[in-house]
Write a sequence for this structure.
């Protein structure tokens, strides 16, 4: 109940509000309240993002940052792989006498994988997928290349170890080297015949060494070479050792470079204790000095030449 002062009656009289006026005032109040509420809501929505959208935006920003880190890691991995590919083509394959891989070989299969990425909707994800697939493809090609290099290295190591690359008689035992290779007058038979090796004069019983890894194909006595040993080194190479006092290996036995296979003697058709040494390549006699000189230092080689210059005749 609300009262109002009446100056004529000098009294406070109650104000009687009709239902119509009350309804009108209530409607005005509700209209103003609704207008203020809607206006406040519009202002809030236009000024502040919804809580869910804010959280989602933060998540998206975090994901973008993680993608950028991923891109940098992919770039770093690509650079490291490129360095490995460069060493593969320019160093490892050159050393092993292999042709470098061309770019088309290293990128084989990339096109098919790019087509598979076309169904990915988001560019950021699609780009990372394609980059990762290219890197994966290059890694697979490089793994195959490294496997080929390993197989070739194993083959080359076996070949290098098999090459007759050392002297069959040590310089400390060697007293004379007869370097005459080819036709010569036989000291006992008295006519010209081929001398298909070198003669190493050394004291009776001096050790004789296998000049490369291989398998003994023959270890027996012959009238011309006396006690002899033939070693098959593979790769078309064979060495022969003659006039031994005795051999200490047998046919079928594997020998290593530097292993003692017998001792200097004077058996067979010979005029004094020495080793007759031959090298064959693809069944053809070659001068042995072309092999073991590569593994001598300057002093050893000069001594060998000095010893060899002391004689131009053969002993068998």
């Amino acid at each position: 109940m609300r009262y109002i002062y009446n100056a004529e009656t000098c009294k406070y009289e109650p104000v009687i509000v009709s239902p119509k006026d009350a309804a009108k005032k209530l409607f005005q109040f509700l209209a103003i309240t609704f207008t203020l509420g809607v206006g406040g809501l519009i202002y809030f929505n236009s000024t502040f993002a919804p809580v869910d959208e804010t959280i989602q935006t933060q998540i998206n920003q975090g994901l973008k940052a993680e993608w950028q880190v991923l891109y940098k890691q992919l770039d770093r991995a690509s650079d490291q792989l490129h360095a490995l590919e460069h060493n593969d083509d320019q160093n490892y394959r050159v050393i092993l006498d292999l042709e470098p891989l061309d770019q088309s070989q290293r990128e084989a299969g990339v096109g098919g994988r790019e087509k598979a990425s076309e169904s990915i909707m988001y560019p950021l994800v699609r780009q990372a997928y394609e980059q990762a697939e290219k890197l994966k493809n290059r890694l697979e090609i490089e793994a195959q290349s490294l496997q080929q290099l390993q197989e070739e290295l194993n083959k080359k190591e076996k070949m290098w170890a098999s090459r007759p690359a050392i002297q069959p008689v040590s310089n400390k035992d060697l007293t004379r080297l007869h370097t005459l290779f080819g036709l010569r007058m036989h000291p006992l038979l008295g006519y010209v015949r081929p001398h298909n090796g070198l003669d190493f004069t050394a004291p009776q019983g001096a050790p004789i060494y296998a000049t490369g890894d291989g398998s003994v194909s023959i270890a027996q006595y012959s009238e011309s070479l006396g006690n002899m040993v033939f070693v098959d080194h593979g790769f078309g190479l064979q060495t022969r050792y003659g006039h031994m006092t005795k051999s200490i290996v047998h046919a079928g036995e594997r020998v290593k470079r530097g292993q003692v296979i017998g001792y200097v003697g004077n058996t067979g058709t010979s005029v004094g204790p020495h080793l007759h040494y031959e090298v064959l390549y693809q069944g053809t006699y070659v001068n042995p000095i072309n092999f073991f000189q590569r593994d001598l230092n300057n002093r050893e080689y000069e001594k060998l030449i000095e010893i060899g210059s002391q004689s131009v005749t053969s002993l068998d």
User: Anything to note?
Assistant: The chain has three domains: 2-47, 57-162, 176-308. The chain has a mean pLDDT of 81.
